Amino acid sequence: MTQPALPENYAATLDALKKRVQSARFTAQRRVNTELVRLYWQIGAMILDRQQTAGWGSGLVDQLARDLRTAFPEMKGFSRRNVFYMRSFAAAWPGPEVVQQPVAQLPWGHITVLLGRLDGRERRDRYAAQALEHGWSRNVLEHHVATNAHERFTSALTNFDRVLDEADSDLAQQITRDPYVLDFLALDAGATERQLEERLVDRIIDTLRELGTGFSFVGRQVHFEVHGDDFFVDLLFFHVDQLRYVVVELKSGKFKPEHLGQLSFYVSLVDDRLRRQQHSGTVGLLLVADKNDPVVRYALSGHGAPVGVARYDLLPSTLRAALPSEDDLTGMLADSAVN
Description:
By secondary structure, this protein is an alpha/beta fold. It is built from 14 helices and seven strands. It has helices at 10-53, 58-71, 80-92, 108-117, 121-134, 138-146, 160-163, 166-174, 193-202, 204-211, 259-273, 293-300, 317-322, 326-338; strands at 157-158, 180-181, 215-226, 229-239, 244-254, 283-290, 307-313. Strands 1, 2, 3, 4, 5, 6 and 7 form a seven-stranded mixed β-sheet that branches. Helix 11 links the parallel strand 5 (244-254) and strand 6. The chain is globular. The termini are far apart.
């Protein structure tokens, strides 16, 4: 059968309809999820009420879970563990207004992570809002919880407010944080810059997850030639939401003011060679093993290119705290010498 000739606007019409179908499906899924979360909260609230007013114990809750599974075998959510999560959910967010909170817009699996891994309403609300805003998957949420992300949702030190206009400065600041936890690289504190680069690229999915939502990888050791001289950018990313290049330079030691000179040069180079008219201004981010914040602020004030400085951690804070300090090691060595 011969296919009819397609009119000129057919492709655009099809694309528009596909977007409407996808939007409708997403809206339907969100509504189904919201109703499911509402149901689970209502079950949990009823269990709480029975425990408080009729003295129900855990044995009766176990029985209730079994009977609900029998009554609704097609539903997967009535395991003993899940029913107890429902009770915890109602206790953590008392009052039916929970459906107006960010947590109620999350999938149930996300909510169980908040309940099982975090204490306190404030911390749970903070992670719920971040997960909703950035579209975190359950695995990403678990990663941020495991690395104490709420303690490090601070922006890197930058000069964006001085060299960018107010709106662009605020946007650019949002894509930075300090510190970045790179424990997934499985490197020790003595790793070289080249080792860091190689492992970050080898684990690029984890790297992008740590950088945050919206980053895409452009390349490592990106080459530029300037009138016969060769230059190589450590890592180059593109932020697809803000439509801007982000130059990342790595320094395995402590921050030095001269580090910003090289980064500023690379930012200017990328901005001139790769940036298109529709793109926002290129920014640079220097990742260092250690830094003195007052020194960083002084150094930033002398640069016209939009750059920032953040620290990276190769070990999680709990493990880092358990390690002996340099003073401890020095003391132990002195004691052993005396003995």
